[in-house]
Amino acid sequence: MNPERVIENGNVGPVNAALVPRYAGPATFARLPRLDELLGGTGSADIVVAGVPFDTGVSYRPGARFGANHVRESSRLLRPFNPAQDVSPFAAAQVADAGDLAVNPFDIEAALQTVDEGITALMADGARVVTIGGDHTIALPLLRANARRHGPVALLHFDAHLDTWDTYFGAAYTHGTPFRRAFEEGIIDTDALCHVGTRGPLYGTADLDDDARFGFGIVTSADVFRLGVDAVVALLRERVGDRPLYVSVDIDVLDPAHAPGTGTPEAGGMTSLELLEILRGLRGLNLVGADVVEVSPPYDHAELTGVAAAHVVYDLISVMALGAGAAPGGPAYGEASTTYGN
Ligand SMILES: N=C(N)NCCCC(=O)O
Ligand SMILES: [Zn+2]
Ligand SMILES: [Zn+2]
């Protein structure tokens, strides 16, 4: 089958939902073309979605190895125009799904190597990569690959957890430790780091001292609740400036009511609207790479977590497609709110 696709601006987009039912056919992210299909046709992609089926680094519930395909399945209803950012991301950029990296489930360091090499290869033509699935351990090789291209990157880390701990059971590479390793390796820009959505119990106050020493700012989920989305966006934009920016989204940043399908849930999290509005507020920043991790489908219900993650990816791709320097806009800033109605 060669399904009818939406083609805009010469870019090959999703399967046309008016001609082929949304629930038909194999899942790719947003029903976009596979990268290998595209390579046979128009050439390369500007933005690539890649799956990382890996959860050997988790400290509690497993299942994130199934996250990538769950996000793909949950992304079938996405439509081509994103009114919240006033952009058709798949028309503004060629976006494709590269499938999954074949990572070793038994050897964490080998897996990290495979992720680094796989993402580096996908970035070779200048594409920016958004990964889906996997546990948070994989943020380390993703940052390594991006820093090799861009130098130490600014990092906005959306997560209930700090993930700057040192070791678990003596192991250095786990889902609770990627950002400490990234600091030690000098691959993140210590002038432009912030956690967002942090909450929940810690091991001790030293966790916060260490984290501050690495250069991280913290916007807790309670801060989002009290200050509101616009104030948080202003603060993050100020911190990042025009630096190359990497965004890492651990889906457990959302309240378990919004994202039950995850491995280390913490009460008192952000709503999916708050997260999406903050991400939309990053429009115009130089977003070079992103991940959405810790989606564990066995603990999900009614695709709640999968749908939330799919929308997060969609808004991240929209920010990337608009590119650095795009005017801050969208309903959050008032001007484009007439996109709906009026
Ligand atoms: N990265 C995630 N999701 N969780 C880290 C939790 C580490 C712990 O068990 O304390
Ligand atoms: Zn995490
Ligand atoms: Zn987390």
Provide a descriptive summary of the structure in words.
This is Agmatinase. Belongs to the arginase family. Agmatinase subfamily. With 342 residues, the chain is of the alpha/beta class. It has a single domain, classed as Ureohydrolase domain (Arginase, Chain A, 3-Layer(aba) Sandwich), CATH 3.40.800. It has 11 helices and 10 strands. The protein has helices spanning 35-39, 67-73, 89-92, 108-123, 139-150, 178-184, 206-213, 221-227, 229-240, 272-280, 304-322, and strands at residues 5-8, 11-15, 47-51, 95-100, 128-132, 153-158, 188-198, 216-220, 245-250, 287-293. Helix 8 packs across helix 9, helix 9 packs across helix 10 (272-280) and helix 10 packs parallel to helix 11. The radius of gyration is 19 Å and the shape is globular. The site of one zinc ion (ZN) has 7 residues, from loops. The site of one zinc ion has 7 residues, from loops.
Lay out the secondary structure.
Layout: E1 5-8, E2 11-15, H1 35-39, E3 47-51, H2 67-73, H3 89-92, E4 95-100, H4 108-123, E5 128-132, H5 139-150, E6 153-158, H6 178-184, E7 188-198, H7 206-213, E8 216-220, H8 221-227, H9 229-240, E9 245-250, H10 272-280, E10 287-293, H11 304-322
Parallel strand pairs: 3-4, 3-5, 5-10, 6-7, 6-9, 7-8, 9-10
Antiparallel strand pairs: 1-2
Helix pairs in contact: 2-11, 4-5, 5-6, 8-9, 9-10, 10-11
The protein binds 4-carbamimidamidobutanoic acid (ALG) and zinc ion (2 copies).
Residues 59-60, 136, 161, 163, 175-176, 250, 252, 263-264, 294 line the site of 4-carbamimidamidobutanoic acid (ALG).
Protein name: Agmatinase
Pfam families: Arginase (PF00491)
Keywords: Hydrolase, Metal-binding
